[in-house]
Design brief:
Elements lengths: L9 H12 E2 L4 E5 L21 E6 L13 H8 L7 E8 L24 E5 H9 L7 E5 L9 H11 L7 E6 L5 H4 L3 H9 L3 E8 L3 H8 L4 H14 L5 E6 L8 H15 L7 E4 L5 H7 L3 H24 L2 H4 L14
Length: about 350
């Protein structure tokens, strides 16, 4: 049970959820059942893969005054040799059934985040790939989402092996979400598994920073404010692996004071990890899906935060214009060089 007032103890809660969400010996992951869930009404298409998968439409276009979102379209097209890059691509999404944080704007209802066996089922990677193969004209992007996939990092190399064994490694693009809540990627994978992740060609990872300062982070996630700093420590380690890494950032906060300075500080911290990484980060505009609508009811702080994000995105755009030349800002996101991964 999560207290409504006490901050989430991320290490303890994550460990408890991980124990319920992965079967390491059986190489199985607990996957959310989307059919019949509170998330189902927001799906563009009916759930597939016997109710455990969904098709997501990734679109470049976003809201007015917000940057276009080329993730994961651009990196997928680059590795798959698709040209020209389309404005929209579909992906098959599987969601692991656990997350240690409770972001108020999450489009996933809470019953799909607590490793509840009544709302989920166990699958091996081979079984998930077999379900994928049954889809007529399946999407070429497979998105391992959540929940929080970094609670069960073994899922990624297991899927890589299953796709390779099925002869699909070259024709599909694997995309993994990471909310930077744990170090399980480094603590739980064997050296062989980590090497496999590093060497898999058609793979990208997106890491989400939840807020632009410690208090917006705590407001957004219900985790302790100090976990905000920890996100950057983990991000530094992920980039150090040499993976094709991108970023999301959410800019909601109930506090309208000091927004521009706080956003500037955020860009400073990202550049301290890699000078060019802000150009690989896409700010996500929070939208009101059904679970979010229910959480917004009678909550003035959350309502106010939707306005604050508009000021924050203006500050973000200004910071990038001041720090990077127009030629750098115009680079395709997958061409932005990193110290750990030069183009």
């Amino acid at each position: 049970m999560i207290s409504a007032t006490k901050p989430i103890d991320t290490p303890r809660f994550a460990a408890r959820l991980r124990a319920r969400a992965i079967d390491v010996d059986g190489r199985r992951v607990l996957i959310s059942r989307l059919a019949g869930s509170g998330q189902e009404m927001d799906l563009t298409l009916p759930a597939n893969c016997n109710g455990y998968g969904r098709v997501r439409h990734f679109r470049m276009a976003t809201a007015e005054s917000w940057p276009a979102n080329p993730l994961p379209i651009a990196p997928a097209c680059r590795t798959l040799g698709i040209a020209p890059v389309p404005d929209m691509m579909t992906a098959l999404v599987f969601q692991n059934a656990a997350c240690a944080w409770r972001c108020w704007y999450c489009f996933v209802p809470e019953e799909l985040l607590k490793a509840d066996p009544k709302q989920s089922a166990w699958f091996t990677a081979d079984e998930l790939v077999a379900l994928y193969q049954q889809i007529p004209d399946p999407p070429r992007i497979i998105d391992l989402s959540g929940g929080s996939p970094d609670l069960v990092p073994e899922w990624t190399p297991w899927m890589m092996r299953a796709l390779t064994d099925a002869g699909l490694a070259d024709s599909t693009y694997l995309w993994t979400d990471d909310n930077l809540s744990t170090t399980y990627l480094f603590d739980s994978l064997s050296r062989e598994e980590l090497t496999q992740v590093q060497g898999y060609r058609n793979y990208g990872r997106v890491c989400c920073v939840k807020g632009f300062d410690a208090r917006s982070f705590a407001f957004n996630t219900r985790a302790a404010p100090e976990d905000y700093d920890r996100q950057f420590d983990i991000l530094r380690r992920v980039l150090g692996l040499g993976l094709d890494v991108y970023g999301y950032v959410t800019l909601t906060s109930p506090h309208a004071d000091g927004v521009r300075q706080d956003v500037s500080n955020l860009v400073d911290r990202l550049q301290a990890i890699d000078p060019n990484f802000p150009l690989r980060v896409i700010p996500l505009r929070i939208q009101v899906f059904t679970p979010v609508e229910q959480r917004l009811a009678r909550d003035e702080a959350r309502e106010r935060s939707l306005s604050v994000q508009e000021e924050a995105i203006a500050a973000w755009i200004d910071e990038l214009q001041q720090r990077f030349e127009a030629e750098q800002r115009a680079l395709p996101i997958c061409d932005v060089p990193l110290k750990t991964r030069p183009t």
